[in-house]
């Protein structure tokens, strides 16, 4: 049973912190347990603004998807490392801009699976599917029948890897996974990444890495050059690899800046790089 009294699938272990639930805790969600909140709080000791960071990353998802639909004409999304559904899911943003948008979500956390079934709906014109799979095995994602039933990879597709690649320790492994995903999509497709970094506050990020590792979660921050290298051979969209808060910020004050009505938010204060690039 979960804390709201519902029945949990057997494979959900509430005693061990999970990435998706820690992130849900920071976003103010209810789908988290004591172990998740303990790790979330331990990390917050190193980065007191962590909840703002999580919201900044989430707000980026909305801006990126709107940009892809409205400015790039993208109608298909492959969002890997989806997270527990929250407000502004990819399909909601995409389909409100263009109802025929089609979205495939992928996550390897059973609690995301449990929620995805219940929450991920679609417009009649579009489609939304969920694949329970691990990004370490991109072939299992690409060969899943739900993908071919929902997306036509001969047409431009946006591959979204938002706040997920830090769980891969080795750059070589990230490059291998990205190579397969980018190979699988057509010319004119887009790759979107956000990634935590130690570039802005090395000491704070070292604390985050240590807390995550104590909880058994690999966590590998990457520098701006390393993130830029992930887009090799692709054309980066302006402004390139930028602090997540500074990537095409909304002209109107966002929810993030409203959190701090009395002062300007330093765009580097959310320790994430964000970038998007087009496949030639
Ligand atoms: C920090 S959340 C990010 C959620 C969402 N992309 C966002 O930025 O708002 C990371 C998500 O990636 C998922 N994840 C972590 N490792 C994964 C893997 N190897 N394969 C698939 N999903 C993974 C976690 O379960 C979690 O839901």
Q: What would your notes on this structure say?
A:
Helix content is 39%, strand content 15%. By secondary structure, it is of the alpha/beta class. It has one domain (19-279): Vaccinia Virus protein VP39 (Rossmann fold). Strands 1, 2, 3, 4, 5, 6, 7 and 8 form an 8-stranded mixed beta sheet that branches. Helix 4 links the parallel strand 1 (76-80) and strand 2 (102-107). Helix 1 (19-26) packs across helix 2, helix 2 (34-46) packs antiparallel against helix 9 and helix 3 packs parallel to helix 4 (90-97). The chain is globular, with a radius of gyration of 18 Å. The N and C termini lie far apart (49 Å). S-adenosylmethionine binds at residues 19-20, 23, 57-58, 61, 80-83, 106-109, 112, 134-136, 162-164, 167.
Q: Which terms would index this structure?
A:
8-stranded mixed β-sheet; 280 residues; Rossmann fold; SAM-dependent methyltransferase; methyltransferase; SAM-dependent_MTases_sf; SAM_dep_MeTrfase_SAV2177_type; alpha/beta; globular; binds S-adenosylmethionine
Oligomer: single chain
CATH topology, by name, is Rossmann fold
**Rg:** 18 Å
Low-confidence stretches: 1-8, 259-263
> How many separate helices?
11
Report the CATH architecture. 3-Layer(aba) Sandwich
Distinct bound molecules: S-adenosylmethionine
Helix amount, in percent?
A: 25-40%
Keywords: Methyltransferase, Transferase
Protein name: SAM-dependent methyltransferase
Pfam family, one: Methyltransf_19
GO biological process, one term: methylation
